[in-house]
Amino acid sequence: MASKKFVIARQLGGKRVITNSGEELGRLADLTIDEETGRIEGLLIEVNSDSRTASRLQKVGKLGHVPYKSVFAVSDVIVVDESLIS
């Protein structure tokens, strides 16, 4: 089962993260996971320096943290609801 998780993580790594209004926040670098439940808590992204919305993200080192509750679509890009980003 663990190998499937790694395959999924590799497929997601580097994907563009955009808002529902089309603003590019950055690219997915990593995920934050609750160690007890295994649930995804958020996305860690390499922030697009031109993004006004990305400036509102909590920072984890040089990466921006996007709450997982804001993710509503994953395909060629990851789409997040701008109103759920604090």
Number of domains: 1
Largest sheet: 7 strands, mixed
N- to C-terminal separation?
A: 34 Å
Secondary-structure arrangement, i.e. CATH architecture: Roll
Which sequence of SSEs, written as H and E, runs from N to C?
HEEEEEEE
Number of helices: 1
Number of strands: 7
Shape: globular
What's the CATH H-level homologous superfamily?
PRC-barrel domain
What is the typical, i.e. mean, pLDDT?
85
- CATH class type: Mainly Beta
Spatial strand order of the main sheet:
4-5-3-2-1-7-6
The value of Rg in angstroms is 12 Å
Approximate strand percentage: 35-45%
Range of helix content: 10-25%
Architecture overview:
The protein has 86 residues and is mainly β. It has a single domain, classed as Roll (SH3 type barrels), CATH 2.30.30.240. 13% of the residues lie in helices and 43% in strands. It is built from 1 helix and 7 strands.
